[in-house]
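Q: what does this look like with guanosine-5'-diphosphate bound?
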Amino acid sequence: MALLDRLREGLSRTKQQIVSQFDEIVHRADAQVPGADEIDVDTVEALEELLLLADVGVAATGRIVTAVASRASRSKSLRDFVKDEIRAIFDGVEPKGSEVSASKHASHVVLVVGVNGTGKTTTVGKLAHFLKASGKRPLVCAADTFRAAAVEQLAVWAERASVEIVRSDDGSDPAAVVFDAIQSGKASGCDPILVDTAGRLHTRVNLMSELEKIRRVAGRAAVGAPHEVLLVLDATVGQNGLAQAREFSNVVGVTGVVLTKLDGTAKGGIAVAIAHDLKLPIQYVGVGEGMDDLIPFSAANYVDALFQQQW
Ligand code: GDP
């Protein structure tokens, strides 16, 4: 299936929620007398409500609605106008293809971070599979030594994806495991090295200082490492994810987001809020639990999948 179709399928719950109402708003707006300066207030309010319902967030919704209310020309349909406004929010925060698969380092080190349950381990597994399929030789590193089940789960993914894994005994120092993984990856020519980290420790402070240490130790094992820090956010959590993102960003310097479980929510508008409020590129989206359910994000495809006309 083409990427756009898979994204469309992943976003189907969000689309179902907004589609008929959005079509009606567009119809109403486009039917208004051409040349009349102002779009009527009810139409603008209906659009605002719809965007908030899809979790586009207050700030981004405000920007879109203000632009709609003050649009000077009716030469474009409201549908195209809204699509262009949303696409513009992603300007400057678009991933350049997939940064991971475009890596130029000998051993590109990617830390995958996020709160427990967001889909980190699953994402590392899917990403390893995706990169392997595109000709890379990834190595995965199980650095969530706090949770034995996470190490086992990653081992299962590594086997399914036929990639190498570096793991250690439960309770060992995760930074040491990361160091070993980078050394081993460099020695055996694996690239990239995908590191699954813990999402929960005894306290939040412990978690953050552990991540900070992993970051430091990775830098000692390879020049410039980690080259990427991907934050996994669960789309079903909605706006709370933004607070998580800020916390992780402050400590480990997040470079991009993987937005998981888009298939399980009608709040897929959260992608717009991430771009608008956090100014972070969304590198991939998760659209299911299977090995192939991770797709590189494209703002153009996203906007088309959500707002294109049904008939
Ligand atoms: P972690 O604690 O962050 O490592 O999270 P896991 O990788 O263990 O994932 C938690 C749950 O979310 C698992 O049941 C996964 O199968 C599920 N999951 C992860 N990504 C997706 C996704 O994109 N879509 C759906 N529907 N489920 C997902």
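The two ends are 21 Å apart (CA to CA). The chain has a mean pLDDT of 90.
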